[in-house]
Design a protein that fits this description.
By secondary structure, the chain is α+β, with helices and mostly antiparallel strands. Among the domains are: 145 residues, no CATH class; 123 residues, no CATH class. 34% of the residues lie in helices and 11% in strands. It contains 16 helices and 15 strands. It has a three-stranded antiparallel β-sheet with strand order 1-3-2. It has a two-stranded antiparallel sheet with strand order 4-5. The longest helix is centred in the N-terminal third of the chain and has 25 residues. The two termini are 37 Å apart. The mean pLDDT is 94.
């Protein structure tokens, strides 16, 4: 994200203290560190990481996938849950802070003092270095700037990733596309076992999924015109990504704590289970999970089956799938050969092809064994005509949205792919009864309706469902919604999952 020494010395946009201070970053939803630690001498929030050898600071998965919930004033950490993070506002503030340091002589003098740059030559060298980074950051901030404010717990990740590849890495500004279809951060538990994890089934392979994420969040791959021998060489650290994917195996869904959150009514729970089976289980696979057929996989592996529903059928806001389905990307002399030398290709095809080429180059340069390559891809292979393993690709077209398992769903609100419904109770209601406006960023659980308390309060984000991309319609199962008593029964069942 930024040279670590520059970040450590950076002031807040208004000049009132250190940018990396946890109390400042908390306004964007970052969680404070768990006390002093020699592994975190700068006291950065959860999700920040410093590569001392490369002198870089960046964000890890934990920034967007760690939550703290409040129950009766007590904060409870939930690893792998969607974070209450406003990434977009954070990144724009970072760009403002760097630019302000350059234009204000007083601020720059304070900045330079952190480096002991007292003489004119040292200060000019530091200023030139900061100015060079500012050019890069300013351009990247434009590529990522949202046309639709995401607020807490959402980001238009795929548009930003494709912008990073198609605009920045290709050096083709004409490919810039509006960042206007934010989606919720998904929970990470069960991830290694799932068929796929994105809201649209576009990548089954873990290394393709994680590699694409790297290239979208500050990583780079060489797609420049005339890249020649450096084409598709990237900053991906494949062994680190594999370690993280393996680590996720131990992450389990959070369990409803009856001692803190209230007892589950077993009779009401069982009634809710019946209603769920009648109206919801056709899409949402629940424990004990139905798995894919072993004969489909080259190695006999099975995965938790993911429900898929065409967005036109479920009736939810179309901005996200439409932004991916309608976007086109201009290629260059380096990327065009991946697509039969076509000058323009669909965005999802461009995304998949360039990420795959970058992953393949990284694998070749890392000299992985055949067994390691299979593990990197999560054993997601079918059998080709020649009897050899072929990478698995989801069967449905990208008009389908994920209807995933609902384990720990009480910790994952707001709901729907775009986070437009604050509680499970409202999601089970007719769309006409859902709130048009609510506020995100609160951490107190709504233990009765499931979700988070979402009234107006200082520091929260006003979520207006009438704005493009924020629609809260659709998902009425059964048609017309459930009765009040039926909703409460399903909620009681979901507490137990």
């Amino acid at each position: 994200m930024m040279p670590a020494d520059l970040f450590a010395a950076l002031e807040q946009p208004d000049g009132r203290g250190r940018f990396g201070a946890p109390d400042f970053l908390a306004q964007f939803g970052f969680l404070p560190p768990d006390g002093d630690s020699p592994l975190n001498p700068d006291g950065y929030p959860i999700g920040f990481a410093v590569d001392q050898e490369a002198n870089q600071v960046g964000l890890t998965c934990a920034a967007c996938h760690t939550a703290e919930v409040e129950v009766n004033g007590e904060r409870i950490r939930i690893d792998g849950a969607p974070a209450h993070l406003d990434f977009d506002s954070f990144y724009q503030a970072l760009a403002q802070a760097v630019a302000a340091t350059l234009v204000s002589p007083e601020r720059f003098q304070r900045f330079a003092a952190n480096f002991g740059a007292e003489d004119e030559a040292a200060q000019k060298a530091l200023q030139a270095r900061l100015a060079e980074f500012n050019l890069e950051l300013t351009g990247d901030a434009v590529v990522r700037r949202p046309a639709l404010a995401s607020g807490y717990g959402r980001v238009d990740a795929l548009t930003q990733i494709i912008n990073s590849l198609a605009v920045t890495d290709q050096s083709k500004p004409e490919n810039l596309y509006p960042v206007a279809a934010p989606t919720s951060y998904p929970p990470l538990w069960l991830t290694p076992e799932l068929e796929f994890v994105q809201w649209i089934p576009i990548a089954a392979s873990p290394i393709a999924r994680n590699g694409g994420q790297v290239l979208g969040v500050f990583g780079h791959t060489d797609l420049s015109s005339g890249a020649a021998e450096n084409a598709f060489r990237s900053t991906m650290l494949l062994r680190n990504l594999q370690e993280m994917e393996d680590w996720l195996q131990v992450l389990k869904p959070p369990v409803w704590d009856e001692t803190r959150m209230g007892k589950i009514d077993p009779e009401l729970r069982d009634r809710g289970a019946e209603i769920f089976r009648e109206n919801c289980a056709g899409c949402h696979n629940m424990a004990p999970y139905e798995r894919t057929e072993p004969e489909v996989n080259h190695f006999g592996e099975t995965f938790i089956r993911i429900g898929r529903v065409d967005f036109r059928k479920v009736g939810t806001d179309p901005a996200y799938p439409m932004s991916l389905l309608t976007r086109q990307v201009a290629t260059n002399e380096t990327t065009a050969p991946l697509f039969g030398d076509r000058p323009i290709v669909p965005a999802l095809e461009f995304f998949g092809g360039t990420v795959q080429a970058s992953v393949q180059r990284a694998i070749a340069e890392a000299e992985f064994s055949e067994e390691e390559i299979l593990a990197l891809n999560g054993m997601r292979f079918t059998t080709g005509p020649d009897g050899k393993p072929v990478p698995y690709t989801p069967e449905q077209p990208p008009t389908y949205l994920k209807a995933g398992p609902l384990a720990g769903v009480w910790a994952t609100g707001p709901y729907l792919h775009n986070g437009s419904v604050p509680t499970i109770y409202e999601l089970l209601s007719p769309a006409s009864e859902r709130r048009e406006v609510f506020w995100t960023g609160g951490r107190a659980l709504d233990l009765r309706r499931l979700g988070y308390e979402s009234g107006d309060a200082p520091g929260r984000f006003r979520f207006d469902t009438r704005l493009p991309g924020n629609g809260n319609g659709g998902h009425e199962y059964p048609e017309g919604g459930l009765s009040h008593d039926e909703r409460m029964a399903v909620i009681e069942y979901l507490k137990s999952q």
